[in-house]
């Protein structure tokens, strides 16, 4: 599992470590790891051309010391000093001693570079890049491999927000611990491939943000035992679809069945469409409370303007997932008085409506938005998007960022598949936070599998069909 920590937590851990180490040792550890990562990206260090974009803080010092190491291995290293009078003195001296030099023509040197190191701003930076830095970063992006030092300059390390111009890196070498902004869009897409360098930090026991990996998901996945029957595996109730949107019901049922449910009980007007595609579905005319035994409910996909069944589902003493149109009729009081778990799964537009703000505000501040929604409704919230986030309403619980998302999921009906899949995981006994995290992970893997190695366009039904392959990929 990747765990990410706030700037204040990282700073505290650094101070504790520096008190036990010789002066400058921590920066040398970071520079050594950075130089190794850059050498691997270059392939051949001797004769390569490296440009350092150097700001005024320790981030620039890391770049200068790493550049000195590359220069000693035969690279031609040039430093572009954005604040010459404030450049790290020790790092600059080391670079010059190794044969590096300070650029007299930054744009020319960047245009000739094989690799550019972004050491402009560190994790304490706030706001976007200044115009000159933005101009140089843009030139670097056009000319060479760009490696960000600790995180791309111009992004917010704590939130993943990008308030202005920012570096867009091919890779980010981060030190000691991941920072939340490296795992959350819009900053995440600017970080490129991530590499963590161990410098001996001891971060707190509880992270701010975490991202599951294969081993974590495999441990959480429910598996039927020899004595399992359909009830032990979990029965999902699905209230979805309408005369206008019958396909939403089909896709939600598909997600639930492909997600390992022992059975699916469908309630709604799209029974004929559901049975035509999945004859194993148990259908009922409603209301949901009369449909029979379930271990979880999913309500909302494709309901249109009909809110029938919402109060009935919310009164059930089983976990409930509310998605799509179901969210439009939901109030915080309805959710807070429930004893069983509740999982809300809005996209940015739906989250904006629930919070009473613009969609662009939610997309720009995804971490704050998902935390606020979870607190307001007293429910687990899965905020869909380029980085799907899952927040628990309890204070101090890390938000989970899903690492498997892909732009191919931006297709009609994919959220309906995710709802059914996650409902199956709830029915199997996973807590809402785990069900949402595992569901998002498998959903992303399935989309990648369906799109294939070349990334071909897909439709939601293909995502549902690829869930088995995603499951196998995790457990194999």
From TrEMBL:
<feature type="binding site">
    <location>
        <position position="118"/>
    </location>
    <ligand>
        <name>K(+)</name>
    </ligand>
</feature>
<feature type="binding site">
    <location>
        <position position="302"/>
    </location>
    <ligand>
        <name>(6S)-NADPHX</name>
    </ligand>
</feature>
<feature type="binding site">
    <location>
        <begin position="122"/>
        <end position="128"/>
    </location>
    <ligand>
        <name>(6S)-NADPHX</name>
    </ligand>
</feature>
<comment type="function">
    <text>Catalyzes the epimerization of the S- and R-forms of NAD(P)HX, a damaged form of NAD(P)H that is a result of enzymatic or heat-dependent hydration. This is a prerequisite for the S-specific NAD(P)H-hydrate dehydratase to allow the repair of both epimers of NAD(P)HX.</text>
</comment>
<dbReference type="InterPro" id="IPR030677">
    <property type="entry name" value="Nnr"/>
</dbReference>
<dbReference type="Pfam" id="PF01256">
    <property type="entry name" value="Carb_kinase"/>
</dbReference>
<dbReference type="InterPro" id="IPR000631">
    <property type="entry name" value="CARKD"/>
</dbReference>
<keyword id="KW-0067">ATP-binding</keyword>
<dbReference type="InterPro" id="IPR036652">
    <property type="entry name" value="YjeF_N_dom_sf"/>
</dbReference>
<dbReference type="Pfam" id="PF03853">
    <property type="entry name" value="YjeF_N"/>
</dbReference>
<feature type="binding site">
    <location>
        <position position="59"/>
    </location>
    <ligand>
        <name>K(+)</name>
    </ligand>
</feature>
<feature type="binding site">
    <location>
        <position position="150"/>
    </location>
    <ligand>
        <name>(6S)-NADPHX</name>
    </ligand>
</feature>
<dbReference type="InterPro" id="IPR004443">
    <property type="entry name" value="YjeF_N_dom"/>
</dbReference>
<feature type="binding site">
    <location>
        <position position="416"/>
    </location>
    <ligand>
        <name>(6S)-NADPHX</name>
    </ligand>
</feature>
<feature type="binding site">
    <location>
        <begin position="384"/>
        <end position="388"/>
    </location>
    <ligand>
        <name>AMP</name>
    </ligand>
</feature>
<comment type="similarity">
    <text>Belongs to the NnrD/CARKD family.</text>
</comment>
<keyword id="KW-0521">NADP</keyword>
<keyword id="KW-0479">Metal-binding</keyword>
<comment type="similarity">
    <text>In the N-terminal section; belongs to the NnrE/AIBP family.</text>
</comment>
<comment type="subunit">
    <text>Homotetramer.</text>
</comment>
<feature type="domain" description="YjeF N-terminal">
    <location>
        <begin position="10"/>
        <end position="207"/>
    </location>
</feature>
<feature type="binding site">
    <location>
        <position position="347"/>
    </location>
    <ligand>
        <name>(6S)-NADPHX</name>
    </ligand>
</feature>
<dbReference type="InterPro" id="IPR017953">
    <property type="entry name" value="Carbohydrate_kinase_pred_CS"/>
</dbReference>
<dbReference type="InterPro" id="IPR029056">
    <property type="entry name" value="Ribokinase-like"/>
</dbReference>
<feature type="binding site">
    <location>
        <position position="248"/>
    </location>
    <ligand>
        <name>(6S)-NADPHX</name>
    </ligand>
</feature>
<keyword id="KW-0547">Nucleotide-binding</keyword>
<keyword id="KW-0511">Multifunctional enzyme</keyword>
<feature type="binding site">
    <location>
        <position position="153"/>
    </location>
    <ligand>
        <name>K(+)</name>
    </ligand>
</feature>
<keyword id="KW-0456">Lyase</keyword>
<keyword id="KW-0520">NAD</keyword>
<keyword id="KW-0630">Potassium</keyword>
<protein>
    <recommendedName>
        <fullName>Bifunctional NAD(P)H-hydrate repair enzyme</fullName>
        <ecNumber>4.2.1.136</ecNumber>
        <ecNumber>5.1.99.6</ecNumber>
    </recommendedName>
</protein>
<feature type="domain" description="YjeF C-terminal">
    <location>
        <begin position="213"/>
        <end position="474"/>
    </location>
</feature>
<keyword id="KW-0413">Isomerase</keyword>
<feature type="binding site">
    <location>
        <begin position="58"/>
        <end position="62"/>
    </location>
    <ligand>
        <name>(6S)-NADPHX</name>
    </ligand>
</feature>
<comment type="function">
    <text>Bifunctional enzyme that catalyzes the epimerization of the S- and R-forms of NAD(P)HX and the dehydration of the S-form of NAD(P)HX at the expense of ADP, which is converted to AMP. This allows the repair of both epimers of NAD(P)HX, a damaged form of NAD(P)H that is a result of enzymatic or heat-dependent hydration.</text>
</comment>
<feature type="binding site">
    <location>
        <position position="415"/>
    </location>
    <ligand>
        <name>AMP</name>
    </ligand>
</feature>
